[in-house]
Amino acid sequence: MHTPASPTPPPLATPPALASPAPPAPSAIDVAARYARLLLHRALWLADQLWRLLRPQLGWILLTTFLLGVIGVLGMLLVLPRLVRSDPGDSRVALIPPAPAVLDFLRGQQSYDADLMWESFSASFQETLQARDFTRERLAAQMEEERRAGQRYRKFDYVGGVRLANAEAMYFYVVEVALPQGSGSRSISFVFTVDRDGKIVAVE
């Protein structure tokens, strides 16, 4: 006798899928860490590219760096003593007014006045010149020769003066001289030594 099959039970209902919860938002620390890792990777990549670029010239780069370092050290050795050393003060001499006798000599040159030039000399200097056969008359003849030749003393510039220990003084001048026959001009220097009476005792 055929036994009827038992009915198949209906399938169980599948429960609905539960929705997965949303991932939590990254914290500020996580964001900072990711950003730091990104910067580190970028820096490593740039360092690798720079190394590939400089590696063929590494010897020259090291040599240049060494030489620049040596130059820098030597420069500091030269500069530091000047920075540390105390200021000794201004060593330039104070400007002193020129002696009237010096001005008389220069003005006598400009006007071909031998008498004015001769009187600017001290008595001892006049005697020294006369002993060398250079008299007032010879000076006058020299100035007249320069006047006829067209040599003119255009101007004189006072450079400076200094007082000496023996009450004398020295004065430095530059004189512009127009040469004869339109040959242009040139500058000549004069150094006058003046005694304590203000008279010229030497001309160089």
H/E topology pattern: HHHHHHEEEE
Biggest sheet character: 4 strands, antiparallel
Gyration radius from CA atoms, angstroms: 50 Å
Distance between the termini: 162 Å
- The CATH architecture of the domain at 100-203 is Roll
Structural class: alpha+beta
In the CATH scheme, the class of the domain at 100-203 would be: Alpha Beta
Shape field: rod-shaped
Strand order, largest beta sheet: 1-2-3-4
By DSSP, the count of extended strands is: 4
CATH fold descriptor of the domain at 100-203: Nuclear Transport Factor 2, Chain: A
Low-confidence stretches: 85-92
Mean pLDDT: 80
How many separate helices? 6
Percent of residues in beta strands? 15-25%
Portion in helices? 40-55%
